[in-house]
Amino acid sequence: MKYYFQCPHCKQDEAFYPVSEQDGGLGCALLVFGGLIPFFLFQRDRFQRVQCADCRLIFSKPPIPYAMTARVAVVLMILIGALPLFFFYIQNQPDYDSVFPANDWLLPLEQIVREHPRAAVYSVGGVLAITFVALLGIAIGSNISKRRSMGKMFRLSVNGPTLPDSAAPPASNPASKGP
What we know:
- The chain is mainly α.
- The chain starts with 15 loop residues before the first strand and ends in a 26-residue tail after the last helix.
- α4 packs across α5.
- The protein has two domains: 63 residues, no CATH class; 85 residues, no CATH class.
- Helix content is 51%, strand content 6%.
- The protein has a three-stranded antiparallel β-sheet with strand order 1-2-3.
């Protein structure tokens, strides 16, 4: 079974190994001097690297692509998150009421909002929160479905033994050479 990615050098997609190399201790230095965010970014990139079985190239494995439904849901969630900021901006503008023409069919709704402003805010906020949670569920569900369907066609993770030492290219050691 093939992987969902290819080696950028030799373009093969059938055999990869987890990277086995000695730790340089950079992660600890990043944690001490840089903080948590650089440390976690470095560790994430370090653990996502694989080694090609043919050409021995070490590279970062690309992330599994997201479902298109999840991308649309995330865009809608961003818009829902930006909506209160837009309302606060509009409310602080002078004469923002004059932008909208008066409609007779909106008068009963305006009257309800004037009489019960807290209930109106909670109702609109509740609808936005329920929509946000529903979109989050759709995004997570569609990504899980996409991963399952990709898992039937491709190998998604590089698990297994590391590259054997006998298969590794010989390292040149200048200290072992004679005069």
